[in-house]
Write a structure and sequence with these properties.
32% helix, globular, binds hypoxanthine
Length: 233
């Protein structure tokens, strides 16, 4: 069933390995700066997707928007209708632990949530979804080879960016969560349900405990490192 309601591409236009970013313009930037001969395959809703060559292999890079419902739709369609084998999300997160500095790379081996996304697969509310262990191991290997410091652990995929209750932070810290973002849980759940592989690599853009924020110069470096790791896998 391609094209889908959200991806205007034929099946063979999308590679079996897809990198995904929340911001479609970030997907465009990666396609134009890392891939050889990138071809635009999707413009539906401005959620740009490109396929190009990296080290002789076809790779796609596509936007996924913000939050669990949005990445839920795109990753479901890629796994189910485009037969994509591997999705690697790269993005930013807010750290919980005051000792985690902005700019730190986090390899998210698992993701808890306040979402009930897993109900559709009869999974219990708030269960911990896991990344593909094989991809986690490879990401660690690549990061080490490149000399990039990283932390591996659990993140929290929240449905809420502006938490007026103030309750969430305590909940996350108690769970031993390293950082908060808004998508990994849905990506891992879809991969689990479809027998596929998924990973999320993050750069800490802000620390929710200390209030430290990443300067914009550092954002490009963080992006470069995540892409180097994601493409090196
Ligand atoms: N919350 C959710 N997602 C994020 C944050 C945050 O504070 N920072 C970066 N991504």
């Amino acid at each position: 069933m391609t094209p889908t309601p959200h991806i205007g591409a034929q099946k063979d236009q999308v590679a079996k390995k897809v990198l995904m970013a929340g911001d479609p313009l970030r997907a465009k930037f990666v396609a134009e700066n890392w891939l050889k001969n990138p071809v635009l395959y999707n413009e539906v809703r401005g959620m740009l997707g490109y396929t190009g060559e990296y080290n002789g292999q076809m790779v796609s890079v596509q936007g996924h928007g913000m939050g669990i419902p949005s990445i839920g739709i795109y990753s479901y369609e890629l796994f189910t209708f485009y037969d994509v084998d591997v999705i690697i999300r790269f993005g930013t997160c807010g750290a919980m632990d005051p000792n985690i500095k902005v700019g730190t790379i986090i390899i998210a081996d698992s993701a808890t949530t306040d979402s009930n996304y897993g109900y559709q697969f009869n999974l219990p509310e708030g269960y911990k979804a896991t990344a593909s262990p094989e991809l986690v191991e490879k990401a660690e290997q690549v990061a080490k080879e490149l000399g990039y410091d990283y932390i591996k652990g659990c993140v929290f995929s929240s449905d809420v960016f502006y938490d007026e209750s103030g309750k969430q932070k305590a909940m996350w810290v108690n769970d031993g969560v390293l950082a908060v973002e808004m998508e990994a849980h849905a990506l891992y759940t879809n991969a689990f349900a479809k027998g596929k592989k998924a990973l999320t690599i993050l750069t800490v853009s802000d620390n929710l405990t200390t209030g430290e924020e990443m300067p914009s110069e550092q954002r490009q470096l963080g992006l470069k490192r995540m892409i180097d790791v994601a493409l090196g896998i």
